[in-house]
Design goal:
alpha/beta, five-stranded mixed sheet, four-stranded parallel sheet, 45% helix
């Protein structure tokens, strides 16, 4: 099988400091998240950031909130003193973090925060009425500066599909960063795409076909420009949720490589498990485990290169809930 994530250096993943138990919140407390620290922390190098502390707001401190002004402009203002604005400093710090940390492979943000919230952050009217539809100033600027970076909130990580999607994207993006750092060539780009074909297909079939056409042009023009187009398509495709139907399609593709080696009973068993998975009766790990069993008996050099069969450490058990 392809090299597993365990054999690679840990991806560096930014994280809101309060989620690590650091007492940096406005009230002097924290929002320690055990899943982030005790589970993901075993497979990610967690890099803490607290933008409010970084721009000089102490602990404890008066809280800030997002306020909508004229022309839909959203500002970060202190609750007890609307004349005290930190919009600019928060955005500037985000740009500095992006510039100083090009090796980040992912980021986990604190939900609901006026600085770090990724979505549905409360935005107040000047009259004081709240509506959930905003994005934290720091988070918004960071995501704009690093549009390829896998980003998620700790609350959304409780959703099994979103959790697996985020972790998969982190490892794919880390591999891309290592590819570029090691020296991009047409051959290495083709190899990278080949190793991720089934992973991409599980998320976005039209994107998979478009990336294939793009990679076929490698060596015919500006490789750097082509690679930038490719990675934008790649990370955009992987953001789409992989459905049971799409996974079942990939499983059937892999089975096609095994058919010449399987007897009737093996084929029937594998087909039945894929169908049960498609119907939601068993988790993804069940047909995957049987496929891996058959591939140990009947190795295939093409399938052995696919990261799809183990896109992240097995100990995370992410596919047990899909």
């Amino acid at each position: 099988m392809n090299s597993s994530p365990e054999s690679e250096p840990l991806p560096r993943v930014g994280v809101s400091s309060c989620l690590l138990g650091q007492q940096v919140r406005y009230d002097g407390g924290h929002k320690h998240n055990g899943y982030v620290t005790q589970t993901l922390g075993r497979y990610f190098e967690l890099v803490p950031f607290c933008p409010e502390m970084a721009i000089g707001l102490g602990v404890p401190r008066p809280p800030i909130r997002l306020v909508a002004g004229p022309g839909d402009a959203v500002r970060a203002l202190r609750v007890d003193d609307p004349a005290f604005e930190v919009t600019g400093p928060l955005a500037e710090y985000a740009r500095r973090v992006a510039d100083d940390n090009p090796d980040l492979s992912g980021y986990i943000l604190k939900k609901g925060s006026p600085s770090c919230g990724m979505e549905r952050v409360k935005v107040y009217t000047e009259a004081g009425m709240p509506a959930r539809g905003g994005v934290g100033i720091y988070a918004q600027t960071l995501m704009a500066a690093l549009p390829l970076l896998p980003v998620e909130e700790e609350g959304r990580l409780m959703d099994p599909v979103l959790r697996e999607n985020f972790v998969e994207r982190v490892f794919v993006y880390q591999r891309w960063q290592r590819l570029v750092a090691g020296g991009l060539t047409s051959a290495r780009l083709v190899d990278f795409h080949t190793e991720h074909k089934f992973s991409i297909l599980a998320h976005d079939e039209p994107g998979y076909r478009e990336m294939g056409r793009l990679v076929a042009q490698a060596g015919q023009g500006d490789l750097d420009a082509l690679a930038q187009r490719y990675v934008r398509l790649l990370m955009g495709a992987l953001r789409q949720r992989a459905t049971r139907k799409r996974h079942a399609n990939v499983l059937m593709h892999i089975m096609g490589y095994l058919k010449p080696h399987l007897d009737g009973a093996d084929k029937e068993e594998l087909l039945a498990l894929i169908d049960r998975y498609r119907l939601g009766q068993v988790p993804l790990i069940v047909p995957i485990t049987l496929l891996r069993h058959f591939l140990r008996r009947f190795p295939d050099p093409y399938i052995s290169r696919q990261h799809y069969l183990q896109p992240h450490p097995a100990e995370l058990m992410l596919r047990n809930s899909l």
